[in-house]
Amino acid sequence: MEHAAALTRAPAVPVPFFTQAATLDAVWPLAEANLAEVVARGKYSHGHMVERFERVLAEHIGAAHVVGVNSGTDALVLLLRAIGLEPGDEVIVPAFSFIATASSVVLAGGRPAFADIGPDDYAIDPAAAADAVTDHTRALMPVHLFHQLADLGALSAVADRFALSLVEDSAEAVGMRWDGRHAGLLGSGGVLSFFPTKTLGALGDAGAVVTDDDRVADAAAALRHHGRFGRTLAHFPGIANETVLPGINSKMDDFQAAILLAKLTRLDADIARRAELARAYTERLADRPGVLRTPTVVARDVPTDPVFYVYLVEVERRDELAAHLAAHGVGTETYYPVPLHLQPCFAELGYRPGQFPVAEAACAHTLALPLYPDLPDTAVDRVCDLIGGFYAGRADL
After folding, report:
1. On the chain, which terminus has fewer CB atoms closer than 10 Å, C or N?
2. Are 169 and 144 in contact (CB under 8 A)?
3. Is 38 in contact with 44 (CB distance < 8 Å)?
4. If you write DSSP's letter for every residue of 320-377 in order, what string do you get?
């Protein structure tokens, strides 16, 4: 009888790494109205809906300026150019991050200089950043990864000590704050990515430069539109409808702005749901064999607001566990299998294995589990049961 019951048991429901179907259903009436307005106005790029989104988001995060662009990667490139990065200038970045952190420096004409991360926050270590400064260093670019901010207090002190620009790769950090100030606004500027999986995600690529610096905002706004200012700007007097900077075509799509405006209305609720799911994961994974580490929020000298964009664990036999979960219909992501300093595209910089041991260790053990507002509580239970079963040697769990 037990064998017969097993044969008729319904297959487990897959748990994708990400989906936003339910979220879209909830906001679709507003999104549809916004999209209809875009169609009626007849301007589909760099238009009225983008301007509205920039204004509403700026108010929401407390920024003087939000400059909508085509992607988070473009936002990084344009931000670096907007602060005046010149050929050969070095920008210190962490060895543990997405490739765009370092490739954006190259695309802006600079040279990435890598530093190790701290053992607790996956962010650039302030002491390592200070050690990486040379006569060619122009900027320091911390990255806020997964669920919390880098140590902006200590990193700001390093930037001040060496007279460096502080720019933030805050692509994942919408909603995160440092002593009340939103990520991206602690130095010359920062960026946001609206890639679909992000906490505030579009239905395609989109991004933004965020800054309180008028001149940086004006330069980024021009650079996204082939270097055309299009109007006289206070910080570039006498310029109107002229191309004075070699820019690119990185204008935000009004259809994406329409979706983002609708989803922005539930951003705070989505952040709260992500925190709830993260707590459930942490409770279920506590003291599990094979799970080396679950996320922690590092205490700072000032209040900070974490936001769980990604739920990242460190585990033994990471790749085997990922394969086990995939075989049972659970999606995961590996952040990041190869540290930046060992990526082939940066081989000419001369870095070698073993230089940044904390980053390299993270690359060997980190795995992201499904985490998004549409995820049901039962899915968290299933993922945790599968992890427990894997380390207990049970192929059926």
Report:
1. N
2. yes
3. yes
4. HHHHHHHHTTB--B-S-SS-GGGSGGGGGG---TTSSHHHHHHHHHEEEEP--TT--H
Distance of CA 262 to the CA centre of its chain: 20
pLDDT tens-digit series, residues 54-99: 999 999 999 999 999 999 999 999 999 999 999 999 999 999 999 9
Interhelix angle 99-107/72-82, nearest 10 degrees: 40
Give which of 253, 264, 336 is closest to 74, Cα–Cα: 253
For the range 351-356, what are the long-range contacts, defined as Cβ-Cβ under 8 Å and sequence gap of 24 or more? Answer: 351/114, 355/95, 355/114, 355/116, 356/95, 356/96, 356/114, 356/115, 356/116, 356/117, 356/128
pLDDT band at 232 (very low <50, low <70, confident <90, very high): very low
Q: Are the C-beta atoms of residues 45 and 252 closer than 8 Å to each other?
A: yes
CA atoms of 113 and 359, how far apart (whole Å): 14
Pairing of strands 366-369, 311-315: antiparallel
Cα dist. 73→93, 100, 101, 361 in Å?
15, 6, 8, 26
What does the pLDDT read at residue 11? 58
Long-range Cβ contacts of 350-358 (<8 Å, 24+ apart): 351/114, 355/95, 355/114, 355/116, 356/95, 356/96, 356/114, 356/115, 356/116, 356/117, 356/128, 357/116, 358/96, 358/116, 358/117, 358/118, 358/119, 358/125
Select from 13, 373, 382 the least CA-distant residue to 196: 373
- Cβ contact 259:31 at 8 Å: yes
pTM of the predicted model, to two decimals? 0.91
> What structural domains and CATH numbers belong to the chain?
2-13+267-391 (3.90.1150.10), 21-264 (3.40.640.10)
* Start-to-end CA span in the chain (Å): 21
According to DSSP, the residues that pair with 68 across neighbouring strands are 208
SS3 115: strand
pLDDT value of residue 397: 60
Active site residues: 198
CB-based contacts of 392, cutoff 8 Å, min separation 6: 289
